[in-house]
Amino acid sequence: MINDKAKVLHSTGKWNVSKDVKRVFASWSSGSAQFVNMDGNRYSVLQMAPERFIATNRQKKGHLVGSSIPGTDMYLIAHIRAKAKGWEHMAYPAIARAAAMMIKGTKSQFIETEVDVTNDVNELAEVKNRLGPSSIDPYLKAEVEGFLDWIKNPQGLNSYLLQSLQENDPYRISKLAEIYNELYRLFYA
């Protein structure tokens, strides 16, 4: 966790970010960096916006995911292991949710604890059983329902696709093809 001056407010002992965090945050703030260096590794920037930062190491050394903490001058940056499955879909929403939970007054206020993340599936299953059934974030659910309504609406997705094809816009068509491939892989692979 850092502030808008790139001062490290909290960090795990296993991850030395103090010497690189200022340059990483300056790159994030610029909105135009193609890569950043953190803890001796180079990460290619995939997404960068004032509230979001996502970068990956091409040599399979992991990923960097950052989120602003809403209503504050603080930011949360996490390192995601290279072998984490589904990280490209799950990491940013999880980091953003954790960042939002750090705000005073939220239902799940940040509690300082040491968390040991392990690969032990049995331990994770035990934790899941203790916590009870999982619930879906109501904002995420509303967003998905709105997206599904847009897909069903004849003036929504269908209209957008037809317009893109009629305009013969190669950029939009290539992006739509990427999205189609990702959805196909997600549901059928």
Fill in the keyword field for this structure:
189 residues; alpha+beta; Beta-Lactamase; 2 domains; six-stranded antiparallel beta sheet; 6 helices
Could you explain how this protein is built, in words?
The protein is of the alpha+beta class and 189 residues long. It has 2 domains: 2-119, Dynein light chain 2a, cytoplasmic (Beta-Lactamase, 2-Layer Sandwich), CATH 3.30.450.30; 138-188, no CATH class. It has helices at residues 21-30, 87-100, 121-131, 138-152, 157-167, 170-188; strands spanning 2-3, 35-38, 41-49, 52-56, 63-68, 74-80. Strand 2 (35-38) and strand 3 (41-49) form a beta hairpin. The chain is globular.
Strand composition percent: 15-25%
Number of domains: 2
User: Spatial order of the strands in the main sheet?
Assistant: 1-6-5-4-3-2
Q: What kind of sheet is the major sheet? A: 6 strands, antiparallel
Uncertain runs with pLDDT below 50, 5 residues or more? 108-120
**How helical, in percent, are the residues?**
40-55%
> What is the average of the pLDDT values?
79
So, CATH architecture of the largest domain? 2-Layer Sandwich
CATH topology of the largest domain: Beta-Lactamase
Which class best fits the helix and strand makeup?
alpha+beta
CATH class of the largest domain: Alpha Beta
CATH superfamily of the largest domain: Dynein light chain 2a, cytoplasmic
Separation of the first and last Cα atoms: 36 Å
Q: Whole-number radius of gyration?
A: 19 Å
Beta strands, count: 6
What's the arrangement of secondary structure elements?
Blueprint: E1 2-3, H1 21-30, E2 35-38, E3 41-49, E4 52-56, E5 63-68, E6 74-80, H2 87-100, H3 121-131, H4 138-152, H5 157-167, H6 170-188
Antiparallel strand pairs: 1-6, 2-3, 3-4, 4-5, 5-6
